[in-house]
Amino acid sequence: MPSDLVTPPRVKECALQFETRVRRITPGVGDYAIVEAEVVRVHALPEIVKPGTQHIDPRQWQPTIYAFRHYFGLGAEVGHRPTSDTHGELAI
Fold first, then answer.
1. Are 48 and 16 in contact (CB under 8 A)?
2. Which of 12, 27, 48, 81 has the most CB atoms within 10 Å of its CB?
3. Residue pair 73/62 in contact by the 8 Å Cβ criterion
4. How far apart are CA 35 and CA 21, in angstroms?
């Protein structure tokens, strides 16, 4: 689907999307580079946003994590920092 502020399109099925602009590219070792980007727009499905806020509710967003050529889901919550904007009753 079209982006609002950048040329690359977005993926409709993705619950949380960031439109970004590249600010710096630093060459790495071999064929790798470090890319620093500025987020210029955030798109989030309403069901993953904590009601009445602009905060993503981590209990509702279930991203797929890629690690060492394997894909994983998130496990159960084990805690949060005291400064969390989305903390609440923690069921352990």
1. yes
2. 48
3. yes
4. 10
How far is it, in rounded angstroms, from Cα 89 to Cα 59?
A: 11
DSSP calls for the chain: ---SSSSSPP-TT-SEEEEEEEEEEEE-STT-EEEEEEEEEEEE-GGGBPTTSS-B-TTT----EEETTEEE---------TT-TT------
User: Taking the chain, what is the end-to-end CA distance rounded to the nearest angstrom?
Assistant: 39
Global model pTM greater than 0.85: no
Residue with tokens 């069901």: 47
Each of the 92 residues of the chain gets a pLDDT tens digit; together they read 999 999 999 998 899 999 999 999 999 989 999 999 999 999 999 999 999 999 999 889 888 888 888 888 888 777 778 887 777 654 43
